[in-house]
Specification:
Helices cover 36% and strands 0% of the residues. By secondary structure, it is mostly helical.
Length: 86
Amino acid sequence: MNNVRLALALVARGEAPLGIVYATDAGAEPRVRVLALLAETLHPPIRYPAAVMADSRHPAAPALLDFLGSAAARERFARHGFLVPG
């Protein structure tokens, strides 16, 4: 199965005994508990890049990108278990 959210849902509903999901996803689902964490050396870093597409016409796109790099956004990401680089 290559869908992390589906794996999480199956475990949360008791339809699967175990699953491998992102720690942040597991932390957001109160019906599951984390049994172990994979060592960071066993996988490449998990990154969520963001960019404004060159042909974007949405007027709020640059502001959203600015917000994602702000101290307020970094604090929110950290509060939800994300490691925020630099």
